[in-house]
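Appendix B. Chain record.
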Amino acid sequence: MIRYTILTEGLRCGHCEARVEAALLKLGQVQSVDANFEQQEIELISESELDETAITQAIEGAGSFGVRSISHDLLAKL
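Structure tokens predicted for this chain:
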């Protein structure tokens, strides 16, 4: 499993969070998405590595949102 931390701009409310979460859940292999408009951050958990361009396009395509950075780390298997 891989955890992505995505720093965003333009998320203004819970509705924005829901739109971005729905868009990212449509990407293959995504297990969970948690957007936080107050911190302008999204945490995404996927089964395998995702294309960062696809992540950016999904977020930007969901509304007037931007991506400042994307980082990821491998989660330990239990």
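Further analysis of this model is presented in Appendix C.
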